[in-house]
Amino acid sequence: MPLPVKFGVSTWLFTSPFQTSSVAELFPKIAAMGFDKIEIAVEDPLLIDGPIVKAALAEHHLEAIVCGAFGPGRDLTHDDPAVHEDCFEYIEQCLDLCALWDTKFFAGPMYSTVGKARMLPPEQRKREWELAVTNLRRVCIMAANRGLDVAIEPLNRFESDLVNTAADAVRMVNDIDHPAAKILLDGFHMNIEEASIENAIKTAGEKLIHLQVAENYRGTPGTGQVNWDAYRRGLDAIKYQGTISIESFTPDNKELAQAVCIWHPLAESQDKFAKEGLAFLKQWAQ
Predict the structure, then answer these.
(1) Cα torsion at 167, 115, 85, 20 (round to 10°)?
(2) Is the model's pTM score more than 0.85?
(3) pLDDT in tens, 36-90
(4) Cβ(202)–Cβ(225) under 8 Å?
(5) Distance between CA 179 and CA 252 in Å, rounded?
(6) Closest CA to 97 of 53, 144, 160
(7) Which contiguous run of DSSP H or E holds residue 18?
(8) What does each C-alpha distance from 160 to 39, 155, 174 come to in angstroms?
(9) What stretch of H or E contains 6?
(10) What are 149-177's pLDDT values in tens digits?
(11) For the chain, which residues make up each domain, given as ranges?
(12) CATH number of the structural domain 6-284
């Protein structure tokens, strides 16, 4: 049986930062390629005119997913509560865009700054975990007030020292203890951190509401060493019915360049990356 999923692509594959002027080039192109959804990476909400984007989504028959960018200064585990408040303000702006664009959740590694990877004493690690849990519970309440969920993303060990695996994400969701707390898994990070992609997906289970994919080297799906059969077994086992988004990055990424470390193109062109990746995924999902 075919997987009952839709396919999306991240704006980060093409541009950084996404802004209102990005719409004219990206939306018709992405729709023409055959994607169902566009995953909008919000680096700076002030660069985005929400109603214009909403109109363009309708014009090109695309649905939106909203992913946050947690670069320097956005850290819910910081020692300074003022930093938390800045982060809450950013998240609230993103949640408002989610509500405006009729998406169902806000996604990303929103517990701390991407690239925050340190060897810590157990006491500090416990304190930061508890800070993240407390602050994300507040985020979940903000989301629920808008009828939204929150999809928490584990990152690999080089990009986070807090949440690295599906098991970590499940533990965080359980500690948050709010119905809006859900999980996003990213195949790039799973390829580094998980002994089994299939088991990681099963571990996330019904809490998994979004999946991002690329190859092991963050390149075009189908061109590398990823065990796509393991993905399929895991998704079939949990009866996944969400979206599968291609996520990689242009080397011109602004917000997360130091963390994602993509210094050169990973395909002949970003358009070819998207087209060939989608063709592979559609065949794989049959």
Answers:
(1) -100
(2) yes
(3) 999 999 999 999 999 999 999 999 999 999 999 999 899 999 999 999 999 999 9
(4) no
(5) 37
(6) 53
(7) none
(8) 22, 6, 19
(9) strand 6-10
(10) 999 999 999 999 999 999 999 999 999 99
(11) 6-284
(12) 3.20.20.150
